[in-house]
Amino acid sequence: MQNRLIFLIVLFTIYLGGTGLLEAQEKRQYAGAFMRLGVGPRALALGGAWTAQANSPSALYWNPAGLARLHKPMMMFAVNKLDLGRQQNFISAVLLTGSGAFSLGWLGFSITGIEARSGNTTVADYTFANSENALFISYAQRLGRYFSLGANLKLYYHTLNKQQGVGRGFDVAALFVPNRYLRIGISFREISDYLNWSGGYRDDFPRSIQAGIAVAPNASFAFTLDAVQISDGTVRPSIGLELSPAGTLPLRIGFNRDHFTAGAGLRTRLQNTQLNIDYSYARDAISQAPVHRIAVSFTLPRSRNVRKIEKPAYKAPPRRWVEITASKLNVRSGPGTKYKVLLHVFRGERFQLIFAGTEWCKILTPRGTYGWVHRKYLRFVNAREKE
Predict the structure, then answer these.
(1) Which of 268, 299, 330 is the last residue of a domain?
(2) What is the mean predicted confidence (pLDDT) over 150-171?
(3) Which of 48, 60, 244, 318 has its CA 20 to 30 A from that of 173?
(4) Is residue 384 scored above 70 in pLDDT?
(5) pLDDT, tens only, 193-202
(6) Final residue before a domain boundary, out of 243, 268, 299
(7) Position 133 in a domain
(8) 354: domain CATH number?
(9) Measured distance CA(138)–CA(170) in Å, rounded
């Protein structure tokens, strides 16, 4: 844990160094504005307080470290038409890899019908469009039971009338989950992001730091709180509350800057696929007009090569659990070291026991997969202790 804290301190120092402190970046505040609109109706309905929760495919935008704690591969699609001829699109896919996750995403923003005039006239000489695109390549890794790190590589491509711009950038984030009720996240965003235009000039994006906590005492209630620092050094808080009394129809409300946000969702199952439809309402930062966003996300079929779900050959008595005693333990596809490693588990984590052999035991992980672990690295836990 001490090494991880040192790593974060060094990262924070590098982040604030380089070309200057946040307070010296006012000249950058308009570059890459489309990257600060936010994505995902669920997160936006909570006022954008999503850095710690980050448990959906939109995590690659808010906090890529959250990808490592997803239990299933997922996808998200969102197409949102805004006023003033603007449109925002977002697509992301998450695949699980051992104790980590890999994700690809695309965020697009466009404006059509921009009028160009050569003088002070009411008639436009011509109209043109603006297109801004960011490709996210993300990876997250669990570092023990409580801690995970994530990073984004972002590739930019913009067009503005006859000009073209290309660039790249980075995000680095961390997530700390000490128990099932509390999550703490921090994200260093737009680290050295830039855009080189064909006209010979360069745009540098303003960097930001966003940190937050999420408290969920049960499956029906979640409270989120974030704070973001950007450009001029001021701190802007956001807050959100999610209630899911029925489980399938969550209701959300939030506050961001000077306006309230709200939203709702629908959760249902289609055979083996979990389908989520989310909606959010907010005020547009430019026109103050109402903005309605809708996104669809769902689980993906599991890769046969990564995590094959098999039916247990044996039924253990109900409510049998085991606790991992090794600092990091391989979960294999069969009872022996010759079998493939499916994922890793960590000291203190507890899993349902499916079958107990003299040397190898079969467990069920929270990601819904069965695997085999060596018995000498397990401690058997009774039902009361598990609860």
Answers:
(1) 299
(2) 93
(3) 244
(4) no
(5) 999 999 888 9
(6) 299
(7) yes
(8) 2.30.30.40
(9) 10
Residue 125 burial (C-beta neighbours within 10 Å; 0-12, 13-18, 19+): exposed
Can you give the residue range of the structural domain that contains 177?
30-299
Retrieve residue 263's tokens. Answer: 């939203």
* Count: domains in the chain: 2
Tell me the CATH number at 250: 2.40.160.60
Least Cα distance to 171 among 36, 41, 297, 20 occurs for: 36
Do 45 and 130 fall into the same domain?
yes
Joined together, the tokens standing for residue 171 give 């995000």
Residues 339 and 276 placed together within one structural domain of the fold: no
Question: How many Cα atoms are found within 13 Å in the side-chain-facing hemisphere of 138?
Answer: 33
Structural domain contains residue 315? no
pLDDT tens digits along 257-314: 778 999 999 988 887 788 999 999 998 876 778 889 999 998 876 544 444 434 444 4
User: What does the alpha-carbon distance between residue 182 and residue 184 come to, in Å, rounded to a whole number?
Assistant: 7
Query: 245 and 168 share a domain?
Result: yes
DSSP sequence for 240-282: EEEE-TTSSS-EEEEEETTEEEEEEEEEEEETTEEEEEEEEEE
- Residue 16: is its pLDDT beyond 60? no
What distance in Å separates the CA atoms of residue 281 and residue 300, rounded to the nearest whole number? Answer: 28
pTM of the predicted structure, to 2 decimals: 0.77
- Give the CA distances from residue 171 to residues 64, 151, 186, in Å, rounded to whole numbers and listed in that order: 8, 5, 11
Do residues 78 and 39 share a domain?
yes
User: Measured on CA atoms in the order 365, 375, 142, 139, is the torsion positive or negative?
Assistant: negative
